[in-house]
Amino acid sequence: MPPTLPWLMATLTDRLRATPPGIHGAGDEYWGLAWPALEWLETELRAGLTTLETGSGASTIVFAAAGTNHVAVTPNADEEGRIRDACRRLGIESDGVTFEIGYSHDVLPRLSQAPLDLALLDGAHGFPYPILDWWHAASRLSVGGRILLDDAYMPPVIAVVDHARRSRAWEIEGAVGYRTVVLRKLADELPPFDWGGERVGGHMTFRYLPAGERAVASARHRVFSTRAGLALVNAYRRGTGLKWRKTG
What are phi and psi for residue 121, nearest 5 degrees? Predict the structure, then answer.
């Protein structure tokens, strides 16, 4: 029997990591969800789930491969064609993916209110967009459903994590990698209308990680977010022919 080719044995995440598709920018950039989070999605998703994401990219390919009933919200219409082309090259059907083109704060309120099993929020990260994305996704999420918050160390995103930590309606299921947090919905319950003095948001933080991992993640991110650090990363990855952003 001939030996099995390595790429036939690899997970989809492994294949994407080996050859990142040019999806973003002018088709020559890859802004990837962190590999641990992509692996988590590949493990947790299954056919028939109803799913949503703000932003699109390699994660959309993973949703397509899993066979979920998926909606990807992106302001860049060109990304749909690039993602569907990438799916074809990988032998993945993308018919179950619907692209909604526009900014999430415009698109999410007008979408169908069918219950969601899982949502990935990785769109705009400036205030207040992560909070708005969470607000619209949370109202549709079924009890027991989960939301993935990417770039959770950023103040506009950590504000959602801080709320979930103190809410009876949510729990922090855990961190995936050093920058993505999984929230689980426990009940349909509106946040309190009055502020109770709790801290939400604030400076960049990794306080959702265990103490030992927190210092490592903070140091790592601060080093590789500097101009010199980003130049080092791009030099290391130049052989791919793609411009890289947000991988880890």
Answer: -110, 105
Which residue segments constitute the domains of the chain, with CATH numbers given?
A: 6-203 (3.40.50.150)
d(CA 104, CA 86): 23
Q: What are phi and psi of 120, to 5 degrees?
A: -110, 120
Please, what is the average pLDDT of the chain? 87
**List of residues 6+ apart from 73 with CB closer than 8 A:** 52, 53, 54, 55, 56, 99, 100, 102, 104, 107, 108, 123
What gap in Å lies between CA 231 and CA 132, rounded to an integer?
A: 33
- In the numeric block, which tokens belong to residue 187? 């009940």
Written as one letter, the residue type at 201 is: G
pLDDT of residue 217 exceeding 90, the answer is no
Residue 73's DSSP bridge partners are 54, 100
pLDDT-derived band at 239, boundaries 50, 70, 90: low
Contact 198, 162 (CB under 8 A): yes
**Integer Rg of the chain from CA:** 18
Q: Give the containing element (helix H, strand E) for 97.
A: strand 97-101
pLDDT value at residue 183? 98
* CA distance to 94, 130, 226, per residue, from 154 (Å): 32, 10, 16
Structure tokens at 50: 């109803």
Strands 69-74 and 97-101: parallel
Q: Given this model, what pLDDT does residue 146 score?
A: 98
Q: Is 153 helix (H, G, I), strand (E, B) or coil?
A: coil
